[in-house]
């Protein structure tokens, strides 16, 4: 039975439980055992016992992996950081609560880059996550634990967050589907913040239908988050099998030399475009004139906000405290010295500098103007195209340690995903195939709140591509 | 030999006002004062990871009311910023405040221009455990987060004040105005009204601005005046010695009267302000403006103008009354109780007498002197049923015991002696007989000599006689 259970997508499992064909406790325990025994370091916490199930609820007790940075009442929520080691919040994030209310159950908290800063999951204070396709390789980040857990069948589906690509890129590296919704469509209340104007929760799932189902129960305006908005549409499960009349735009700025797209990735991308054409889509080059500046602007804006968001970790009220020499400043600096990892410190320093008096206009002000230009680029492009398509990441999953010494090389992983984040628009990554035995991701981006159309197009492509997401069947580790 | 340069002080104020909302600026915790520590807290005002601020609509409403009361332009769209600095009383590591686009722009109150008014959250309260109560020698410091997140309006004036007394008086006008519109308790001792002063000097007649210093948190009107006065003296001495004033932040110690430096310009914080990404811009709609306008009562400055123009009170008297709402309310109650025959100017002239007797901080409406009693007393005087001196005694009795003025006059035998009372003419005759010298001077046209005669009559009548009536009788009996 266990092997059959693992073959079910989350939507299929929910349907089976609701139909009385599957015992939710058995479903839960099957995954709980796998998660607890996992060798990928995908989880920072796994439930020890089963919760109560509501088999008639829409999500019917299907277990969920939740990225560590979502606050879950009474359960460790550490955002991958030593400074929050053992921290158990007194409340639950809105998005998680909405999923509980829809019948989802918490299986475990998933590993991540510290404070969501990273593209490989090597920045976690709780150790790196291994890629189930090849355990010498990274799963991507920062939602690497969620991506690896879903790809390895340790959990049916998982929540992640995406600030500059942190859902889409690990989904691509792990051969699964990852969706970053429109900024503001899902509440940020209870998400331990990295960069407030960019952070957005989203699903990491085995297929597009599961992403649609999870997203349906995540969206909505939240009185606790002033930047949240009501989604104009109920999220529908996709069914479209063709792309007739759909115009796809391929931005030349993101596929040029600067992005450094690998040949294997490029090949997979071109095959995906062929598939799209065969489904009736037209494919043309489009221009996002400022998109190549997105990474530069992002690495001002995100660290600036992070430098402020992370100021609260001062050792006074919760989390780690290292005593000082009887004075406040030494307590602060020792606590933060010991509690934060090198990448977090780097970004705090970058952001502090970018906001400091005399530099604000040159850095932060300019970055905000670039951000507006990029948003306008997309608006213009969506006048001629239904979706913008790119490879999700320039390469496939790289080896552990390959880029840790070179932050800029690491940052380039987000070259194709950051522009959408700055524009606040939704983007989805679906597997387009393998390159050297490792998954390649295809990214589709749509105008704000066009999630339903985006999911339909992604579904049509997914069905046509027919990617087999099982690492084991493809010679992978798990 | 050159004359010593005269300096003119230039003073601007920054006032923090705690708003009297039910809940905090960005969360649902109730406001409190003097409660057990850390019982009015939640994940939001403790700055727990993942929490987000939500703007308190009532605080915005009060902010708009303050802006309207101070004649400010109300920004249709304002922005919250983060002011970043580390301190244990600041749980997020930043204060949510307003920076370059505050909710209220330029305005004016009395003679002082308002630069801006903005909304922000208060810090928590640090308690330094140890003998001194100050951080440096404390055994340890603990934090009470009850106050953290209380809504504040910060009001910043232009440097339009030129003396310590003017600064104190203007702050009192502001306090009266804020109390009248009901947005704050404006209690300096409890910290719901806090005032910093920026002080500089310039040579009299010049229009430039000298180097300023900032005086922090003077927690009473008296300390404000003392602190500013001390700083003016300090800066005057520095400039007279040919030295330069250093830009710095100063702490005034009322016990010693000394000013100590908190930090110099070099030590000033870089707050790294940037727009608060957790909040959308604050949009003030026409409906919000209308609602705030509808709730504004008559403001003290408008009331002063009305008392002056409609009731004929002298300018200063009108302001003295109108700028103390409870006094003005009492005054208008007296006029209402007195009906048409009571003279508004006469009533106004009696108020200082009353305030002197009940104390300047007391609410006359709470005293034993009812509005009807004071109206009746003023009428007794104006109909000459009692003279001024006797009426003062009646007022003293009223303050102590309450009651009806006419009955007190009757009981204490304080009624005025007048022409119909043959007794008064006899006393005047006796006075003339007792001081023929004064009578002779008067006959010679030296009117100053009337004094001793009036004094004699007053003594004999125990002050009950009417002065003008005595004068009239003296002239009559001397044939003048």
Account of the 3D structure:
The complex is a heterodimer of chains A (478) and B (480). The model of chain A has no long low-confidence stretch (mean pLDDT 96). Chain A has a domain at 2-243 and 426-465: Alpha-Beta Complex (Amidase signature (AS) enzymes). Chain A has helices spanning 2-7, 10-18, 24-36, 94-101, 144-151, 168-174, 208-216, 252-255, 263-278, 294-309, 328-339, 342-355, 361-384, 407-411, 418-423, 451-465, and strands at residues 43-46, 63-67, 105-110, 157-162, 177-180, 200-205, 247-251, 282-286, 387-391, 427-435, 438-445. Chain A is an alpha/beta fold. Helices cover 36% and strands 13% of the residues of chain A. Chain B is α+β, with helices and mostly antiparallel strands. Chain B folds into three domains: 7-294, no CATH class; 298-412; 422-478, Arc Repressor Mutant, subunit A, CATH 1.10.10. In chain B, 39% of the residues lie in helices and 18% in strands. Chain B has helices spanning 57-69, 164-181, 221-240, 286-295, 300-311, 315-322, 325-338, 344-358, 371-382, 388-401, 405-412, 422-434, 436-443, 450-461, 467-478; strands at 7-18, 77-78, 80-84, 94-98, 107-109, 112-121, 125-129, 140-144, 151-157, 193-203, 213-218, 248-253, 258-264, 274-275, 282-283. Chains A and B meet through helix 10 of A and loops of B.
Secondary structure layout plus pairing:
The complex is a heterodimer of chains A (478) and B (480).
Chain A: H1 2-7, H2 10-18, H3 24-36, E1 43-46, E2 63-67, H4 94-101, E3 105-110, H5 144-151, E4 157-162, H6 168-174, E5 177-180, E6 200-205, H7 208-216, E7 247-251, H8 252-255, H9 263-278, E8 282-286, H10 294-309, H11 328-339, H12 342-355, H13 361-384, E9 387-391, H14 407-411, H15 418-423, E10 427-435, E11 438-445, H16 451-465
Parallel strand pairs in A: 2-3, 2-4, 7-8, 7-9
Antiparallel strand pairs in A: 1-3, 4-6, 5-6, 5-10, 9-11, 10-11
Chain B: E1 7-18, H1 57-69, E2 77-78, E3 80-84, E4 94-98, E5 107-109, E6 112-121, E7 125-129, E8 140-144, E9 151-157, H2 164-181, E10 193-203, E11 213-218, H3 221-240, E12 248-253, E13 258-264, E14 274-275, E15 282-283, H4 286-295, H5 300-311, H6 315-322, H7 325-338, H8 344-358, H9 371-382, H10 388-401, H11 405-412, H12 422-434, H13 436-443, H14 450-461, H15 467-478
Parallel strand pairs in B: 11-12
Antiparallel strand pairs in B: 1-9, 1-10, 2-15, 3-4, 3-14, 5-6, 6-9, 7-8, 10-11, 12-13
Helix pairs in contact in B: 1-4, 2-3, 5-6, 7-8, 7-9, 8-10, 9-10, 12-14, 12-15, 14-15
């Amino acid at each position: 039975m266990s092997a059959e259970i693992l073959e079910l997508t989350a939507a299929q499992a929910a349907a089976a439980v609701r139909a009385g064909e599957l015992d939710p406790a058995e479903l839960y325990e099957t995954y709980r055992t796998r998660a607890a025994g996992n060798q990928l370091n995908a989880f920072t916490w796994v439930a020890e016992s089963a919760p109560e199930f509501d088999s008639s609820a829409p999500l019917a007790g299907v277990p969920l992996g939740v990225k560590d940075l979502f606050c879950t009442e009474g359960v460790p929520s550490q955002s991958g950081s030593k400074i929050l080691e053992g921290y158990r919040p007194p409340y639950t994030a809105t998005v998680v609560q909405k999923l509980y209310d829809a019948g989802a159950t918490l299986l475990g908290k998933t590993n991540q880059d510290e404070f969501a800063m990273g593209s490989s999951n090597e920045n976690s204070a709780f150790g790196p996550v291994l890629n189930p396709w090849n355990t010498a390789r990274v799963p991507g980040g920062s939602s690497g634990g969620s991506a690896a857990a879903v790809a390895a069948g340790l959990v049916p589906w998982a929540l992640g967050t995406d600030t500059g690509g942190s859902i889409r890129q690990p989904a691509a590296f792990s051969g699964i589907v990852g969706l970053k919704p429109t900024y503001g469509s899902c509440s940020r209340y209870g998400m331990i913040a990295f960069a407030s104007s960019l952070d957005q929760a989203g699903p990491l799932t085995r297929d597009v239908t599961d992403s649609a189902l999870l997203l349906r129960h995540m969206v909505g305006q939240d009185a606790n988050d002033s930047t949240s908005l009501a989604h104009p549409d109920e999220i529908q499960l996709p069914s479209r099998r063709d792309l007739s009349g759909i115009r796809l735009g391929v931005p030349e700025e993101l596929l040029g030399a600067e992005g450094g797209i690998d040949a294997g990735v490029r090949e997979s991308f071109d095959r995906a475009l062929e598939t799209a054409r065969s489904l009736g889509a037209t494919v043309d080059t489009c221009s996002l004139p400022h998109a190549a500046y997105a990474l530069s602007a992002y690495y001002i804006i995100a660290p600036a906000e992070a430098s402020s968001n992370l100021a609260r970790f001062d050792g006074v009220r919760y989390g780690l405290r290292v005593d000082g020499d009887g004075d406040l400043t030494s307590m602060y600096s020792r606590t933060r010295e010991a509690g934060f990892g090198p990448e977090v410190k780097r970004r705090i320093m970058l952001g502090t500098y970018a906001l400091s008096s005399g530099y604000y206009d040159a850095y932060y002000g300019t970055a905000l103007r670039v951000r507006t230009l990029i948003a306008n680029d997309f608006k213009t492009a969506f006048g001629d195209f239904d979706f913008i398509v790119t490879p999700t990441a320039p390469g496939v999953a790289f080896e552990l340690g390959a880029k840790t010494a070179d932050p800029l090389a690491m940052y380039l992983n987000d070259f194709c995903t950051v522009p959408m984040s700055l524009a606040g628009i939704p983007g989805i990554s679906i597997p387009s195939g393998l390159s050297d035995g490792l998954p390649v991701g295809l990214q589709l981006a749509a105008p704000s709140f066009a999630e339903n159309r985006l999911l339909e197009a992604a579904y049509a492509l997914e069905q046509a591509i027919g990617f087999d997401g099982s690492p084991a069947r493809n010679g992978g580790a798990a | 030999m050159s004359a010593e340069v005269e300096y003119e002080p230039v003073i601007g104020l920054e006032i923090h006002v705690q708003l009297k909302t039910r809940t905090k600026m960005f969360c649902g915790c109730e406001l409190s004062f003097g409660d057990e520590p850390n019982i009015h807290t939640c994940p939001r005002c403790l700055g727990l990871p993942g929490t987000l601020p939500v703007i308190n609509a009532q605080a915005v409403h009060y902010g708009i009311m303050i802006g309207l009361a101070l004649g400010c332009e109300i920004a249709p769209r304002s922005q919250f910023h983060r002011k970043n600095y580390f301190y244990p009383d600041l749980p997020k590591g930043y204060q949510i405040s307003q920076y370059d686009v505050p909710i209220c722009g330029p305005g004016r109150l009395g003679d002082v221009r308002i630069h801006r008014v903005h909304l922000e959250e208060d810090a928590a309260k640090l308690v330094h455990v140890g003998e001194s109560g100050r951080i440096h020698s404390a055994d340890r410091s603990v934090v009470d987060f009850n106050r953290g997140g209380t809504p504040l309006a910060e009001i910043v004036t232009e440097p339009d004040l030129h003396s310590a007394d003017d600064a104190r008086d203007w702050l009192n006008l502001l306090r009266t105005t804020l109390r009248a519109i009901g947005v704050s308790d404006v209690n300096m001792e409890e910290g719901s009204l806090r005032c910093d002063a920026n002080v500089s000097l310039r040579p009299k007649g010049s229009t430039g601005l000298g180097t300023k210093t900032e005086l922090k948190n003077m927690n009473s009107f008296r300390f404000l005046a003392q602190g500013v006065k001390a700083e003016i003296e300090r800066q005057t001495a520095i400039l007279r010695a040919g030295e330069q004033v250093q830009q710095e932040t100063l702490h005034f110690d009322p016990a010693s009267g000394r000013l100590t430096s908190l930090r110099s310009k070099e030590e000033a914080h870089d707050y790294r302000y940037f727009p608060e990404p957790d909040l959308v811009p604050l949009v003030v709609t026409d409906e919000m403006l209308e609602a705030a306008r509808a709730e504004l009562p008559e403001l003290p400055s408008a009331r002063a103008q009305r008392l002056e123009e409609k009731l004929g009170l002298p300018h200063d008297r009108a302001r003295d009354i109108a700028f103390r709402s409870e006094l003005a309310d009492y005054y208008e109650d007296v006029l209402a109780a007195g009906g048409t025959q009571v003279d508004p100017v006469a009533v106004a002239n009696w108020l200082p007498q009353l305030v002197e007797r009940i104390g300047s901080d007391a609410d006359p409406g709470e005293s034993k002197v009812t509005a009807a009693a004071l109206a009746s007393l003023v009428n007794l005087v104006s109909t000459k049923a009692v003279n001024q001196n006797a009426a003062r005694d009646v007022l003293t009795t009223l303050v102590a015991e309450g009651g009806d003025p006419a009955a007190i006059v009757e009981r204490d035998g304080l009624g005025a002696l007048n022409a119909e009372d043959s007794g008064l003419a006899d006393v005047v005759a006796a006075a003339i007989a007792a001081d023929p010298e004064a009578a002779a001077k008067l006959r010679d046209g030296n009117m100053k000599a009337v004094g001793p005669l009036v004094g004699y009559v007053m003594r004999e009548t125990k002050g009950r006689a009417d002065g003008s009536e005595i004068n009239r009788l003296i002239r009559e009996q001397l044939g003048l």
